[in-house]
Amino acid sequence: MNLALPVLVPVLPALGAAATLATGRKVPGLARPLAIVPVAVSAVLALVVALQLGTGQTLEAATRLAPTGGPGISISIYLDGYSSLISVLVGLVATCVQVYSTAYLKDDPRYPSYAALVSLFTAAMFLVVYSGDLIVLLVGWEVMGICSYFLIGHHWETADARSASLKAFLVTKLGDVPFLFGIFLLGADAGSFRITDVLAAAADGRLTHPTLTALLLLGGVAGKSAQFPLHTWLPDAMAGPTPVSALIHAATMVAAGIYLVARLLPVFLLSGAALVVLAVMAAVTMIGSALCALAQDDLKRVLAYSTVGQLGYMAGALASGDREASVFHLVSHGAFKALLFLAAGVVIHAAHTNSISAMSRMPGLRGRVPDAYWTMGIALVALIGLPPFSGFFSKEAVLTAAEHAAHGEALTNGVGPASAVPQAAGWIVLISAGLTALLTAAYATRLFLVAFHSPAVAPAAGAAPAAGAAVAAEPLDHEADAPYSPEVDEADPATAEPPAMRWPLWVLAIPTMGFGVASLRTDWLPELLDGGSLRPSAVTAVIGSGLALIGMLLAYGAWRSATARLASGRPAAAPEGRVPEQAGAPAAEVIVADPGRTLLGPLFGPARHGFGVDRLYSALFVRPVAAAAQLVRFLDREVVETYVRGSGVGANLLGRAVRLAQTGNAQTYLSALLAGVVLLAVLVAV
């Protein structure tokens, strides 16, 4: 293979980003071609590289970048089935996002900088995937972090976007600190930062602190991949443009942490304690995020919590020792989650609001966005995990991996011994993943029914609002402070979605429906990875699908019950084509038939607010740090500056006293001299 091909994959989007920034304002017409063409060419090259590499093959090339006095730093490329597969996903999703963005942000004056950052974001993820050196990988890792900060805060004129971007940056950097020390430990033990050397050291038992190293690395993974306890930034990141959400959630930032653990899995297999910690982290993340998703009113926040939960599935597969299943679900999830977000963007464009309660009162919404309606339905079925969609096969691969690990037969596929995976980790993942499958089906069904299928029910007699009133009174149990991340909507809702916002949906629908079949034969997808089987076991397939169906039926039954119960008191349906205020508070958009309230009961309020994790962090960390900052400010201004000002004032007073003595009168000077002589004489005489 010509090494120029894999080198060009990350280089082209980076050059496109630089060119877009240089010419975007001066020649606006070039911004869109410069945004799309380099990324699309990189996607094609990534596919060509994958095809030329083939299955079961690896390619490594390196050149020394800089001596360090210790482990050297190399510009290294390492290609195998994992990097090939994920690079194709990154290229596909990034191309769809760039094309989609040309229409979604067509009137945005900051589109050139936005497009440049998306291209740079894509280049950084390609660098992470292709890099064979941990320090160079760290460069891409951090570039993605700063790109996410700017992209989430794209609409910086709004307070939500500013706070969300700052929160994402700080939380992920908090995880990056232990991550950096973990990389240093790996380099010190292996004598090199090259991934192949690190894995060789792990195989030879030369890693002296495997548990500490693995736990430090998990800090960075928890931050980047939004795992408990560093998951709180991802739901708030919905204040950014919807195409950015698709890119972050599907193929770049949050996928980087999972990819890194999969790449370094032999290191984690040296520590059973680290695997149990990873399993517990994944279990809490899966269940907690699914409960939160069931209570959200903001469409994008539902999808955000869904991403957190699905990343928990991937982390759970890694804790079970099966990186094949984890990466399989990563790629499958990348396709249908990108589809979900882009379809959500079309729906938000038409409804002019993120609130699914507002959408429930808009008759004919699904008729106005047929492409988004059908493709979102396809993606939600894949998210639920029903056959024959890709989500079914990848989810069942995770459950199968957890089942084998629970019985002491972990599917490590030659990466390490099966006995290295504690059975406790398998049981934790298996039980939590089963419960999450049920909850996932429930919140996905709730989203689809409430947003698109809420019936228009006339208000009961006597319940009509008074003359001049806009809507009926809202229910007393509605929470006015429900989390809501409004995005600045620059589109005209009266205008039909352009083709650039529709055809990417159907492109992504193809792998959403058909990618799963690639796992059925060992000489297809499994041979590209580690060669193990990805077929679901009969037991987990029946149980997983059964739990998903139960979740769907529970949500449907609760929805029908809530609809029937509230029909008599429901506010009048909005006129056809009603467009709510774009950033209206969710208190004005009441879900009149929300199955989430029925299913969660007393947990609905806490789940809507993320079980108070943000409040807890605010009480434990934010407020003490802010109080300490206030104390430092007081000491600096009132104590330190007082001494500084005091020294200046003292010198000034001394100068004034000396100036009073310097009168220029010779008689005064002689009198003072004589007085001094007399005083000295008296003192000597005494």
Count of DSSP E strands? 2
Biggest sheet descriptor: 2 strands, antiparallel
Poorly predicted residue ranges: 457-479, 571-591
Identify the strand order in the major beta sheet: 1-2
Q: What amount of the residues lies in strands?
A: under 5%
Distance from first to last alpha carbon:
107 Å
Could you tell me the radius of gyration in angstroms? 31 Å
Mean pLDDT: 86
Number of helices: 27
Overall 3D shape: globular
Give the proportion of residues in helices: 55-70%
Subunit organisation of the chains: single chain
Derived structural class: mainly alpha
Order of helices and strands: HHEEHHHHHHHHHHHHHHHHHHHHHHHHH
Question: How would you characterize this protein structure?
Answer:
By secondary structure, this protein is mainly alpha-helical. It is about 65% helix and about 0% strand. The chain has 27 helices and two strands. The radius of gyration is 31 Å and the shape is globular. About 55% of the residues are buried.
List the helices and strands and how they pair.
Elements: H1 4-23, H2 31-53, E1 59-66, E2 73-79, H3 81-104, H4 111-130, H5 134-152, H6 159-190, H7 195-204, H8 210-224, H9 233-236, H10 242-250, H11 253-263, H12 265-268, H13 272-293, H14 299-319, H15 323-351, H16 356-360, H17 365-368, H18 370-384, H19 390-406, H20 423-452, H21 499-514, H22 525-528, H23 538-566, H24 595-600, H25 604-608, H26 613-661, H27 666-685
Antiparallel strand pairs: 1-2
Helix pairs in contact: 1-2, 1-4, 2-3, 2-4, 3-4, 3-10, 3-15, 3-21, 4-5, 5-6, 6-7, 6-8, 8-11, 8-13, 10-15, 11-14, 11-15, 13-14, 13-20, 14-15, 14-19, 14-20, 15-18, 15-19, 15-21, 18-20, 18-21, 19-20, 19-23, 20-23
